[in-house]
Amino acid sequence: MNIHPLRIGRTKVPFGQFYGGLQGFSVSEFAADKDHFIWVPIHAYLLEHPTVGPILVDTGISPAQAAHTDYYRGSIMEHVMDADEYDLPAEETMPAQLARLGHRPEDIRAVFVTHFHEDHVGALNLFAHAPAYLGAAEYAAREDKVFGLVPLAYPPSVAAITDWRPLEFTGPALGGFAGSADVFGDGSVIALPTPGHSPGSTSVLVDHRFLLTGDAMYTIRHLAVDQVRAIQTSGETRYVDSIRRIQWLRRELPELLVLTSHDHTEYGERLITGLATGQLSDADLAWAKSYEQATFDELANINPARLPRFVPAADGGSVGHAE
């Protein structure tokens, strides 16, 4: 099956949100820290399934979200999110990215929602004609209030969808996962429960070769969960447990590659570039495995030389980068 990464703009995030989970980075710091930003990409994925047809995993953001002011006016997000939090060039909108591959939004036969956060469902309303698959726990929590004020599923982003298909993970165990969901019954697309980042976050295993994690892992370095951890507003125990299950799955499937939505590292960029044709070359696969071996030991502990650190902007601005 061909798998195409779709670059749907980028988002500006505090370094501590990505990497400060073990340093006590808090929700209040998330809202107040305006001096340690990094830009990270937003990726959705197009799967060209041989029998089902084109399928999406997440949808990225929309132009209305990137404009910010009117879209979030009157909600807590108007104040928590910066007006320039999203950057979405015209050539990176969902319709433009699909057109690059010869598809239109109406061609999409199904959408997988890894979780309800805004940078993953912003273009969801383009696909009101298609079923939307997601973890049953995420669907059940859709009206739970974030910060006690706004539903997990922000209504303007999800209002058009009527065919929700919550997934129960009653299928066979796989790696560290006690259950799974073989969505199309052919083993090609298997959903796995990876809660923690959100109540019912789901990862998608494609052809037993690629694991699309959404935000269950921000980058490949987050595999080293005892050394690199994202900030958690809730469910930290489940977050850690989910990553340990992904570690187990990698041991069971040695050729498995992890594709996240926001990996700004050399590893993420190389895999995204390598998949431009829908298939990864043997050379890119060998490079990825060599990179992993240089980054992690057999227990997924990270090489100290590859721990992320914030590098301030050379011009003294608020947006630096991570090394």
UniProtKB/TrEMBL annotation:
Needed co-factor(s): Zn(2+)
Keywords on record: Hydrolase, Metal-binding, Zinc
GO molecular function: hydrolase activity; metal ion binding
Parts forming coiled coils: none
InterPro entries attached to this UniProt entry: MBL_superfamily_lactonases (IPR051013), Metallo-B-lactamas (IPR001279), RibonucZ/Hydroxyglut_hydro (IPR036866)
CDD domains on file: AHL_lactonase_MBL-fold
Source species, domain of life: Bacteria
Domain Metallo-beta-lactamase stretches: 41-262
One Pfam family hit: Lactamase_B
Family of the protein in this entry: Belongs to the metallo-beta-lactamase superfamily.
The protein, known as: Metallo-beta-lactamase domain-containing protein
